[in-house]
Design brief:
4-stranded antiparallel β-sheet, 28 helices, alpha+beta, 32 strands
C-alpha cells in the first residue's frame, strides 16, 4: 500500500509539474500529493461526496452511502454503511469522538465512535447538511443542527429524549452550516445568516451577491477563521466578516452582537472552498474555459490560490492549477476544500480524487532552487537550515553547484567555491583537481588549493606546477613563492626547471625561481650565486637569514656593485664574521667602493678604522671632498703633515687653513684666508675663533690699505678689539665704503655695552641688597632651645634640670649652643 502511495504521489507531482509554465520563476507556496492507499481503492469503485478532517483522522463520505474513517496516510481504519444513496455531509465534534452524518434520502445519524450513544432520524426530504456541537462530548452540549428546508436544532433533554426546534425556515434549502463556539452560520437560497446560541438571536443576514447562479450548482462555502471571524465564498465573491459586540447605548431592541464586513473582493473564478492560512486565504476555484478545438465552454482544471485580502481587493500570492482525475466532468458543487487547523494541511476533494496540499518546507524550497539551477541560493538555504532539513546534504548541493559552474565555463568561481564546499575533505579535493585537469583548467584551481590542514598528496601540487611550467613561467614563479616547499617533491621540480633552463638559459624568471627552490632545499650557495648573477634584492635577506657570510668573502665587490648602501650596512653589522681588514683588502682595486665602506665605518666609530685614516685622506680628496674637512676635524688619528701636503697639492684652501691653524700656524692660515680667499668675514671669524691679539694686529695691518676690508673690520671688530686702534691707523683722505654706517654701528655697539654694564650693575646691587635683607631677617628670628640641645663644650644639657635657678646660654646663628661659663673667653659674647 505504501509503495502504491509513493507512485501516486510521484505521478501527481509529475502531472502538476507539466502544467506549470516553464518560464515561471516564482516559487510555489504549496506542494501536492494524492491521498492514496485505501482512498485509491475506494475511489476505484465509488466516488467521494464529502470529507471532514480531524487532527487524528479523516472521515470520507461517498456516493454509495458509505462513510470511511482514514488515517492521515489514507489507510482505512473503519467503515460505516449509512445509506444506499449519497452522503451529503459528515460532522465531527472537537474531540473526534462523535460523528453526525446526513444523506440524500433524508437520513440523519449522530453516534459515538467509541460509545453506544446513537441518534437516528429520517426526514421526508433530502438533508443536505448536519453539524454537531463542537463540544458534543460534554453532557450539557448534546446538540446538533440539520439543514434541509428548515434549520432544525436537536437538543437532548429529560430521559435522553431529543427535542427538535426550528431555528429558521422559508428561504429555500439550507446547503451549508458551520458551527463555531456559540455561533452558527448557515447558507440558504437568499444568503448567509449567523445565530448566537446564547441569546438564540439571529445577528446578521449577508445577502447573496449573484442571484443568477443556481445555489445547488454553485453552493456557498463557509469557514470560521476563529471564534469571531467568518469567511464566506459564493460564486466569484469573497467576504470576510467580523462578529463584534454592540455598545450598550446602541442596543435598544437589537441583538447584543453585530457583524461587520471587513474585507470584500471578487475572484476570477467560482469559489468551491475556503480556508485560512495565517493572515492569508486559500481559495479552491472552479474554472471554465473555451476549448480551442470545439470552441465550446468546458470544465478546466481547478485552481488553488493563496491570496492576501485587502479592503476592496486582494493580492494573489500564488496560483496552482490542479490535475485531478476526471476534472473534465466535474461541476463547482463537486469540489470541496477541508483543512486541518494548526498543521497547514489542505484537502481538495473531488469525486475521483483527494489531493493533499501542504506548505512547502525548507527541503522543498531547496528542491525548487536546484530545479531552477539557483545553486548559490540553495547552498545558502541549506547552510541556514542545516539542523532542520532532512532530504538534502550541504555537501551534495555544493558539489552540484561546482559541477554546474564548470558546465557553464565559470572555472575560477567553481575553484573558489571548492574552498568553502570541500573544506578539509582531501579525497574530494583530489577528485575535483583531477576533474579540472581533464578539462585543462588546473590553473583555475591552483590559487585555491589547500596548503595547510589539509595537505593533499605531493603529486597534486607537482601536477599543477608542471602545468604552469609548460605555459606560464610567471605563474609558476608565483606558486613557488606562495607555496611552502614541503607540499611537493623539491628535487623533481628543480630538475624540471633545470631542463627548461637548458632551452632558455637566460630566462630571469626561471633563474629566480630556481634560486628559491635551492633555498627551500638548503642549497644556499647555489641560490646565492644565482641571486648575485641576477642582482636580486633578496640576496641580502638570504645572507642574513642563513648566515652565508663565509660564502661572500670573495663576493664583496659584487655585493657592493649591486647595492653599496645595503652591502656596507651588512658588512659593518657583521664585523665579527668578515673583518674590516678583509673588506678593505677585497676592495683594494675599487677605491671608490673602498671609500664608501671606510666613510660609513668612520661615521659609526671614529676609532675603529684608525689605521686607514691616512688612506682615507686621499680617498676623500678624490671621491668626496665635501666630507674631507669634517673628517679632518673629527679624526684624531690622521697625520696632519700628510693631510697638509695633500691639501696643498690639490689647492684645497679651506682644508689647508684648518690644518695650519690646527698645527699652530695661525698667522699662515690667516694669511691664506686673506690672500687666497680674500674673504674678510672668514678672516674675522677665524680671528674670533683663535682669540689672539697678534692675529687681530696682523689682520688690521693687512686690511689698512684695503677699504672693503676696513669696512668689514669696523662692522665686526667692536666687541673684540678697541676700534680706536683701527681708526687711528686709517690714512687721511682714504675713501672707505659705508664709513658713516660703520661708525654709527661702532657707537651703537659702544652704547649697547654701556647699557649692558649699567644694567648688570643695577641687577647686582639689587640682588646684593635683597640677599642682605634676607640674611638680616633670618638672623633676627628666634632659635628654639629645649631639653634635647646640649652644650657644645661640656656636652651636658643646655637647660638646667632645676628651672628655678638662673642660667645664661649663648646661641650662635649656626645653631651651636654653649653655657656662658663654658665659653673660653666670656667677654667675647655679648648678652
Amino acid at each position: 500500500m505504501a509503495e502504491a502511495g509513493e507512485k501516486e504521489t510521484r505521478s501527481y507531482e509529475e502531472s502538476t509539474d507539466e502544467s506549470e509554465e516553464d518560464e515561471s520563476e516564482e516559487e510555489p507556496k504549496l506542494k501536492y500529493e494524492r491521498l492514496s492507499n485505501g482512498v485509491t481503492e475506494i475511489l476505484q469503485k465509488d466516488a467521494a461526496s464529502c470529507m471532514t478532517v480531524h487532527e487524528k483522522f479523516l472521515a470520507l463520505g461517498t456516493h454509495y452511502g458509505k462513510v470511511y474513517l482514514l488515517d492521515v496516510q489514507g489507510n482505512i481504519t473503519q467503515k460505516f454503511d449509512v445509506s444506499p444513496v449519497k452522503i451529503n455531509q459528515i460532522s465531527l465534534d472537537e474531540s473526534g469522538e462523535h460523528m453526525g452524518v446526513c444523506s440524500e434520502d433524508g437520513k440523519v445519524q449522530v453516534f459515538g465512535l467509541y460509545s453506544a450513544e446513537e441518534f437516528h432520524e429520517t426526514f421526508d426530504c433530502p438533508i443536505k447538511i448536519v453539524a454537531v456541537h463542537p463540544q458534543f462530548v460534554r453532557s450539557h452540549f448534546k446538540q446538533f443542527v440539520t439543514g434541509g428546508k428548515k434549520l432544525l436544532l436537536y437538543e437532548r433533554g429529560w430521559m435522553n429524549r431529543w427535542k427538535p426546534s426550528v431555528l429558521h425556515e422559508g428561504e429555500g434549502n439550507i446547503r451549508n452550516i458551520k458551527w463555531r463556539g456559540h455561533l452558527i452560520a448557515w447558507a440558504n437560497n437568499m444568503g448567509v445568516k449567523i445565530l448566537d446560541m446564547i441569546s438564540k438571536q439571529r445577528i446578521t443576514n449577508v445577502p447573496r451577491d449573484d442571484i443568477s447562479l443556481r445555489p445547488d450548482m454553485y453552493p456557498c462555502s463557509l469557514c470560521w477563521k476563529d471564534n469571531l471571524t467568518l469567511i464566506i465564498g459564493w460564486g466569484n465573491s469573497v467576504k470576510i466578516c467580523s462578529v463584534k459586540e454592540r455598545h450598550a447605548s446602541e442596543m435598544r431592541d437589537l441583538p447584543n452582537r453585530y457583524v461587520e464586513i471587513v474585507f470584500q473582493f471578487d475572484t476570477e473564478f467560482y469559489v468551491s472552498g475556503l480556508a485560512p492560512l495565517c493572515d492569508q486565504l486559500v481559495i479552491l476555484s472552479y474554472v471554465k474555459e473555451i476549448s480551442e478545438k470545439t470552441e465550446v465552454e468546458c470544465c478546466a482544471r481547478p485552481r488553488l490560490d493563496i491570496v492576501q485580502p485587502l479592503p476592496e481587493s486582494c493580492e494573489e500570492i500564488s496560483s496552482d492549477a490542479l490535475t485531478v482525475r476526471g476534472f473534465q466532468e466535474n461541476e463547482c458543487r463537486d469540489y470541496h476544500l477541508e483543512y486541518s487547523e494548526g498543521e497547514s494541511l489542505f484537502y481538495i476533494i473531488s469525486p475521483r480524487d483527494v489531493v493533499v496540499a501542504k506548505e512547502r518546507d525548507q527541503d522543498d524550497h531547496i528542491d525548487w532552487l536546484l530545479e531552477k539551477k539557483k545553486y548559490e541560493e540553495a547552498l545558502m538555504a541549506a547552510e541556514i537550515s542545516q539542523k532542520t532539513i532532512k532530504k538534502h546534504k550541504i555537501l551534495d548541493i555544493g558539489l552540484a553547484y561546482i559541477n554546474h559552474l564548470m558546465e557553464k565555463g565559470e572555472y575560477d568561481l567553481a575553484a573558489r567555491k571548492c574552498q568553502k564546499i570541500l573544506g578539509k575533505n582531501t579525497e574530494l579535493w583530489e577528485f575535483e583537481v583531477y576533474k579540472f585537469k581533464e578539462i585543462g583548467q588546473l590553473k583555475a584551481i591552483s590559487r585555491y588549493l589547500p596548503r595547510r590542514d589539509p595537505v593533499l598528496k605531493p603529486l597534486i601540487y607537482e601536477m599543477v606546477l608542471h602545468e604552469f611550467l609548460e605555459s606560464d613561467y610567471e605563474g609558476f614563479a608565483t606558486l613557488i613563492k606562495e607555496w611552502p616547499g614541503d607540499l611537493y617533491n623539491n628535487t623533481i621540480i628543480v630538475q624540471a626547471v633545470v631542463d627548461h633552463l637548458k632551452k632558455d638559459p637566460q630566462n630571469r624568471t626561471l633563474l629566480r625561481t630556481l634560486a628559491e627552490l635551492y633555498t627551500y632545499d638548503q642549497r644556499y650557495g647555489r641560490a646565492l650565486e644565482i641571486y648575485l648573477t641576477l642582482r636580486h634584492k633578496d640576496v641580502f635577506q638570504l645572507i642574513h637569514k642563513h648566515n652565508l657570510f663565509s660564502s661572500i668573502r670573495d663576493k664583496i665587490v659584487l655585493l657592493m656593485d649591486f647595492d653599496s648602501e645595503k652591502a656596507v650596512d651588512m658588512l659593518l653589522d657583521n664585523e665579527d664574521k668578515i673583518s674590516i681588514d678583509r673588506v678593505v683588502e677585497e676592495l683594494e682595486n675599487r677605491p671608490e667602493l673602498q671609500h664608501v665602506y671606510l666613510h660609513k665605518l668612520f661615521k659609526r666609530d671614529h676609532h675603529k678604522g684608525q689605521r686607514y685614516h691616512e688612506k682615507q685622506i686621499n680617498l676623500y680628496a678624490e671621491y668626496d671632498r665635501p666630507n674631507l674637512l669634517p673628517f679632518l676635524r673629527d679624526s684624531t688619528h690622521c697625520p696632519l703633515e700628510k693631510a697638509l701636503e695633500i691639501c696643498q697639492q690639490r689647492n684645497f684652501v679651506e682644508e689647508t687653513v684648518y690644518l695650519l691653524s690646527r698645527m699652530g700656524n695661525s698667522r699662515s692660515a690667516l694669511k691664506m684666508i686673506m690672500e687666497e680667499l680674500q674673504d674678510v668675514d672668514k678672516a674675522i671669524e677665524f680671528a674670533k675663533e683663535q682669540d689672539d691679539g697678534e692675529l687681530w694686529e696682523d689682520l688690521i695691518l693687512y686690511s689698512i690699505d684695503k677699504p672693503p676690508f676696513i669696512t668689514g673690520l669696523l662692522n665686526n671688530i667692536g666687541t673684540h678689539v678697541d676700534p680706536i686702534l683701527l681708526i687711528h691707523r686709517i690714512k687721511e683722505g682714504m675713501e672707505i665704503p659705508n664709513l658713516r654706517d660703520s661708525l654709527v654701528k661702532i657707537l651703537q655697539d659702544y652704547n649697547l655695552q654701556i647699557l649692558l654694564r649699567e644694567g648688570c650693575k643695577k641687577i647686582l646691587v639689587a640682588d646684593s641688597l635683597s640677599l642682605l635683607k634676607k640674611m638680616h631677617r633670618t638672623q633676627m628670628k628666634g632659635v628654639l632651645v629645649d631639653e634635647e640641645n646640649i652644650c657644645e663644650s661640656c656636652l651636658s644639657p643646655i637647660l638646667p634640670s632645676d628651672a628655678s635657678k638662673s642660667f645664661s646660654v649663648v646661641v650662635f646663628h649656626c645653631r651651636h649652643m654653649f653655657h656662658r661659663e663654658c665659653l673660653p673667653v666670656s667677654n667675647t659674647v655679648r648678652n
